[in-house]
Amino acid sequence: MTGSSGAYSFPSLIPGEYTINATKVNTSTGNLDYLTEQTITLAPNSTTWINISLTYAPVAVSGYTTHNSVIVGAIPITYSPDKTVTNNTATKQTAATSDKEGFYNVKLTPGAYNVTVKKTEGATTVYSFTGKLSLYVGEGSTSYDIALTKESVTVSGSTLYSGVGKANVTVYFKKDSTIANNTAIAKSVKTDRNGTYTVELMPGSYNVSITELVNESGVNVTYSGTGHLSLFSGNAPKVFDIILTREQAP
Fold first, then answer.
1. Averaged over 114-132, what is the pLDDT?
2. What is the mean pLDDT of residues 130-147?
3. CA 109 → CA 139, 173, 205, 249, distances in Å?
């Protein structure tokens, strides 16, 4: 990490352990340019010289993660030093995660960063972001909001038998192999106690199926349903209900 150093003596101090705090204030911004905290031990009956290496004071970066101006929480954010920048003082990759309110804060060494987001659910990428961030010595703090791109499509619906939602049914979304260059990624989801489900799916074409064997009052029955679903990049949330048939086991 780039910084500066100097040698200092500490006369007339009682032997023991000390913590040294050294700072340099930016005269233009009033914020810190450099700071360090260092622990030293002074021995009795001796003169001790200490080299103090100053490091750049971090910049406090904060902001919100949003999609279409709506807050999205629990988003992982990565700040990587931009290797295309000559003599970049940013040298360490750092990560942060927005809270449930979409707010994040992180302290970063001044320098140039690539900012990336890849929020996934299994093999499905739900949100993404790429951007640049430049931070300057003595800046102190700055805000940096992140406008996410929605990569997946939110699909929700009900599994219905005789108009009533069927609970604990597994819905399979399988890639339609008859479609050329299909970008679909297979996924499954189980319905809740009301027979409803929500799932994030990549754009593409899917064959949807349900085959669920259950025991009802001592009788084995199978609930079945099929469908076809086509999703496109940028689709609004989609409702896809599945009508079930019921067959009693012999």
1. 97
2. 96
3. 10, 45, 45, 66
Task: Give the pLDDT confidence score for residue 40 in this predicted structure.
Answer: 72
Return the closest-CA partner of residue 81 out of 70, 97, 92.
Answer: 92
pLDDT at 146: 98
| Token pair 């929500």 in the structure block, residue | 198
* Closest listed residue to residue 84, CA positions, set 135, 116, 132, 117: 132
One-letter amino acid identity for 240?
F
From the centroid of its chain, how far is CA 55?
Answer: 28
The whole-number pLDDT of residue 250 equals 66
Using CA atoms, how far apart are residues 107 and 116, in angstroms rounded to an integer? 16
Tell me what pLDDT residue 2 has: 41
Q: Is the pLDDT of residue 1 over 60?
A: no
Q: How far apart are the first and last CA of the chain?
A: 74
From residue 230, give the alpha-carbon distance in Å to each of 183, 212, 240.
Answer: 11, 24, 11
Which architecture, in CATH terms, is 59-150?
A: Sandwich (2.60)
pLDDT at 3 (0 to 100):
43
CATH of 153-248, one of 3.40.50.1000, 3.90.79.10, 3.30.870.10, 2.60.40.1120: 2.60.40.1120
Other CB atoms within a 10 A radius of the CB of residue 154 amount to 16
The CA radius of gyration of the chain, in Å to the nearest whole number, is 29
CA distance 212 to 72: 34
- Going 155 to 159 to 162 to 168, the CA torsion angle's sign is negative
Residue position matching structure tokens 């038998």: 161
Q: What is the pLDDT of residue 72?
A: 97
Q: Could you tell me the pTM of the whole model?
A: 0.80
Is residue 28 helix, strand or coil?
coil
